[in-house]
Structures are given as C-alpha cells and as structure tokens.
Amino acid sequence: MKKFLFLFFVVLVVFVFGCATVEEEGGSGKVASSTASGTLVLWNFESNSTDGWYGKGKWANACTVNSDSKFVKEGKYSLKIDAKGSKGWNQDIALNDGPFSGDFGNLKSITMDVYVPETSMKGLEYGQIFLVISGSANSWYQIPQGLKPGWNKLVYKLESDNIAGDIWHIYFVFNSGGDFKGPVYIDNVVGNF
Q1: 13, part of any domain
Q2: What is the DSSP string of 96-156?
C-alpha cells in the first residue's frame, strides 16, 4: 500500500508540474503570457479592465472597456478610446505607466488590432496612432502608423537600442488632420520576439 501511495504521489506531482505554464509579469500588473510562438501578450483587456491605460487632463475619461462584439477582434473585450474632438498631436489620450515585462527590451515588433468607425474619421485629412515608448534608453521613441476606417492591423517595428533598459511609460499618441468625430477601439496588443 505504501508503494502504491508513493507511486500515486509521484504521478500526481509529475502531472501537476507537467501541466504548468510559464507566465511573466505584464504591462499593467496583470499577467502577460509568453508562448512558444515567440509572442508576448502585452494587453488584451480580457480582465474587463483598461489594463492600466488611462487618459490625462481633459482626456482623463477617454479610456474605457468595450464589450460590444462588433468592436472586439478576439475574446470579449477591447479598449475604447473616446477620441471625439482630438485634433493634431494628442499625447494625453492614452498612457500606460506599467509595470512592463522584463522581456520588453527583446521585442522586435508590437502588433495590435485597431477598429476605427467610418464616422470617427469623417472629414479627417489623415489619422495616425504613434506608439511612443519612454525609457532609460530613449526618453521619447516614436513609431507612426496610419489609420483607415474599419479594421487595421498595425505593426510597429522596434529598434532594440531604443527600448533596452527600464521602460517608464508607453503612449498611444493620436495625430490627425482635423477633429476625430468618435471612438477608436484597440485589441490584442502583442509583442513579437
């Protein structure tokens, strides 16, 4: 009987540790998962929260959670950024103070799904979201991507020299030729190694 219990215990321990997954700290104090495919989920909003994203000053209430499936690419939630009235360069609309993954400096790119309703861009000459990373390697490292109505798959290629070391803040800076007329939705912010 003792041999049976011992064998049962060994099998149980092997099973428990064999099913464990590796996770590391993510960008918002939540857990970001690292997968064998070379990706790091930074923010997916599936905790029904903004995952640490917030607006500042006049834009303090700009970042909220969206549950309307029409504006979600994967899962149940996305980040809704109320950009109505945002014109020109707006670095106060969406910021994140971390903490950020220790692997952040090893990323080669960041991708995200962005939905822009046609009415939100009506009358704009152009619309952009700059990914801005502020840290010890570079206090203001910015990469632009253009927007169009509908779903956008934005890819921000990173230079490792500009993101090495401590990361202080990350911004989604909105830039436009004219006033945004409504919200923009962000989902699946993923780092790629």
Answers
A1: no
A2: E-----TTGGG-SEEEEEEEE-HHHHTT-S-EEEEEEEEESS-S-EEEEEE--SEEEEEEE
Residue with tokens 């990373």: 133
Q: What is the spatial distance between Cα 91 and Cα 87, in angstroms, rounded to a whole number?
A: 11
Extract the tokens encoding 61. 């209430």
CATH number at residue 120: 2.60.120.260
Query: pLDDT by residue (tens digit) across 72-108?
Result: 999 999 999 999 999 999 999 999 999 999 999 999 9
30-36 contacts: CB < 8 A, separation 24 or more? Answer: 32/101, 34/103
Q: Considering the domain boundaries, does residue 65 fall inside one? A: yes
Answer whether residue 105 is part of any domain. Answer: yes
Whole-angstrom distance, CA of residue 135 vs CA of residue 125:
32
> Residue 12: inside a domain, yes or no?
no
What is the torsional sign of CA 75, 77, 79, 84?
positive
Residue range 151-180, pLDDT digits in tens: 999 999 999 999 999 999 999 999 999 999
CA atoms within 13 A on the CB side of 81: 27
Tell me how many domains the chain contains. 1
pTM: 0.82
Which domain range does residue 97 map to?
45-192
